[in-house]
Amino acid sequence: MPIGLENVYKSRLDTSKWDYSQLIDPYGFRWEYGITPFSDWQIIVGSWALYFTTIFGLKTYMSSRTAFSLKYITALHNFILSAWSAGMFIYAVIDFIDRWQTRGLPECFCTSDSSSISGRLFYTTYIYYLSKFYELFDTIILVLKKKQLIFLHWYHHAIVITMVWSWLEEANPYSTIGMIANTFIHIFMYYYYFSASLGRSIWFKVN
């Protein structure tokens, strides 16, 4: 159960308490601050620090160097994210419908039953949260290829980690809607990037 944001920031990082079995237990999953791996707020702050230091450090390093091609690394990275998004989307839709049918539509948006904030639907949200850390490599690839790095890009990647963390920490069932929408878009977006990186045309591209 969430311990409340007012108490979260008083806690200290202690990874020895992490229960790694939660990474592979969809049906028994239950978000617990300080117990679920990567649930501690210090992980987010540390990731921000490493992310910003890396991308701006690399940007300075690459300023006087030739851009890397990274054709196949880019393709693999985007294929992984497209496939990963497809899996999360499918499971989220299935479990959202199941929650709707078994508990009613209001329970898909808000609940007072703490025992219901567990299981595969919330495990999928957790995996979605972890995927946001992996998405940070988008920016690193852009910098190494010397592509334009706009504020919205790196700000979005940094802030969305905190957003999804708050969904889990505050036990918000309605977050599933955001996850479904985002993963659906990412299936096609990252598949397009995958195809484009290999020089392939794609049927849904708008000219």
UniProtKB/TrEMBL annotation:
Cellular-component GO terms for this entry:
endoplasmic reticulum membrane
* Keyword Membrane belongs to the record: yes
Q: Which UniProt keywords apply?
A: Fatty acid biosynthesis, Fatty acid metabolism, Lipid biosynthesis, Lipid metabolism, Membrane, Transferase, Transmembrane, Transmembrane helix
GO-annotated biological processes: fatty acid elongation, monounsaturated fatty acid; fatty acid elongation, polyunsaturated fatty acid; fatty acid elongation, saturated fatty acid; sphingolipid biosynthetic process; very long-chain fatty acid biosynthetic process
The subcellular location is:
Membrane
Its recorded reaction(s) are: a very-long-chain acyl-CoA + malonyl-CoA + H(+) = a very-long-chain 3-oxoacyl-CoA + CO2 + CoA; an acyl-CoA + malonyl-CoA + H(+) = a 3-oxoacyl-CoA + CO2 + CoA
Transmembrane stretches, start-end: 41-58, 70-94, 126-144, 151-168, 174-194
Gene Ontology MF term list:
fatty acid elongase activity
Which class of enzymes does this protein belong to?
Answer: transferase
Note the topology in the membrane: Multi-pass membrane protein
Protein EC: 2.3.1.-
The reply on keyword Transit peptide is: no
Protein family according to the UniProt entry: Belongs to the ELO family.
Q: What is this protein called?
A: Elongation of fatty acids protein
